[in-house]
Specification:
GO terms for molecular function: alpha-methylacyl-CoA racemase activity. The protein is built from 15 helices and 16 strands. By secondary structure, the protein is an alpha/beta fold. It is globular.
Length: 371
């Protein structure tokens, strides 16, 4: 038995943060019912690339859920949700503040029907504050909080981060964590609660070191100036002769000394506190003399926190991740199509057995079951 079996989740969220949060709940055994608009369903169904009738993004994020099609703007249609609200342990919504109130489904309205319901609202800026109604996407949230300023490339060559940090780390993960805390609290009190997940709020946690440097020492970090943002030769990327990248992170002195030996750094440049720029330049020159495979083997032997950057396809083929069973869960599609399910941070002990074929729902596929 999985730990969330018996937990009923009514999911009114779309796109990434909410659906990823409810995916994790579903993987742990919760019954997740996705409420979608009739006709097209949620927007992510239309994204490219398609994988059968819907996008592969939708399929990955909604594996194991059920779908009902309900027009929330139509009062008689909306009233059909009442029995589901009455039995819901968790309600997840991702509209802008005030929208659920206009639909008659605010936390206060839901609480009247079901005082035990845990109601999780996920937004960019939260349910209160001057920015609560502002539109935004991940790039705006990481920009507003200062996170982007720590490593955004050069002015002439700005770099957009490769992950949707706010959506996932600021939205989906905190939503799951707080839903589980609220379920535990309900065991004690018998009452539900309203969880206000503001994606931007939760980004400050990732800048613990930057906040500490600024608040305690008055040393506010800049763009790529500090230890973990490339401001030292001990933590940065170096190009190899065949246009690949060495990810070098020999921070500790014992690792740094081993690193210097491998690249053949002159003794006069090994104290990187003397002239960091000169040390960096010398490493750049030496790493660029040899191809990635040369460095991969040398650093494997040295074992000093250095590796060759893999592309996504290479990472999926990595024997380590394969041995860990990371891609052993199966997403089932139409006409026998099968791909690896999205890896999620839920322990295998709490999920369906690896190899179990689970699909994402067709739009409104479960209306008959619930209405």
């Amino acid at each position: 038995m999985r730990p969330l079996e018996g937990v009923f989740v009514l999911d009114l969220s779309t796109l990434l943060p909410g659906p990823m949060a409810t995916l994790m709940l579903a993987e742990a055994g919760a019954e997740v019912v996705k409420v979608e608009r009739p006709g097209r369903g949620e927007e992510m169904r239309t994204y490219a690339p398609k994988w059968g009738r819907d996008s592969v993004n939708f399929a990955l994020l909604n594996r194991g859920k059920k779908s009902i099609a309900v027009d929330l703007k139509d009062p008689p249609e909306r009233e059909r949700l009442r029995p589901l609200v009455e039995r819901a342990d968790v309600v997840v919504e991702q509209f802008r503040p005030g929208v659920m109130a206009r639909l008659g489904l605010s936390y206060d309205e839901v609480r009247k029907i079901n005082p035990r319901a845990i109601y999780c609202s996920i937004t960019g800026y939260g349910q209160s504050g001057p920015k609560r109604d502002a539109a935004g996407h991940d790039l705006n949230f990481i920009g507003d909080t200062g996170l982007l300023s720590l490593s955004m490339g050069e002015l002439g060559h700005p770099v957009v981060p490769p992950a949707l940090i706010a959506d996932i780390a600021g939205g989906a993960y905190p939503a799951v964590m707080n839903i589980l805390l609220a379920l535990r609290d309900r065991d004690r009190t018998g009452s539900g609660t309203h969880i206000d997940v503001a994606m931007s709020d939760n980004l400050f946690t990732f800048m613990y070191w930057a906040l500490g440097n600024g608040l305690a020492a008055g040393e506010w970090p800049g763009n790529g100036t500090d230890l973990v943002t490339g401001g030292t030769p001990r933590y940065r990327l170096y190009a190899t002769a065949d246009a690949k990248m060495l990810a070098a992170a020999p921070i500790e002195q014992k690792f740094w000394e081993a690193f210097c030996e491998v690249v053949g750094l002159p003794e006069g440049l090994r104290d990187d506190a003397v002239d960091p720029a000169a040390t960096t330049a010398a490493i750049v020159e030496r790493v660029a003399e040899k191809p990635a495979e040369h460095w991969r083997e040398r650093f494997r032997i040295a074992d000093c926190c250095c590796s060759i950057v893999a592309d996504v396809e290479e990472a999926l083929c990595d024997p380590h991740f394969r041995a860990r069973g990371l891609f052993s869960h199966v997403l089932a599609g139409e006409a026998g199509a099968r791909i690896a399910a999205l890896p999620v941070p839920v322990a295998n002990a709490f999920r369906a057995p690896p190899g179990t074929e689970i699909e994402a729902p067709a739009l409104g596929a479960h209306n008959v079951e619930y209405f």
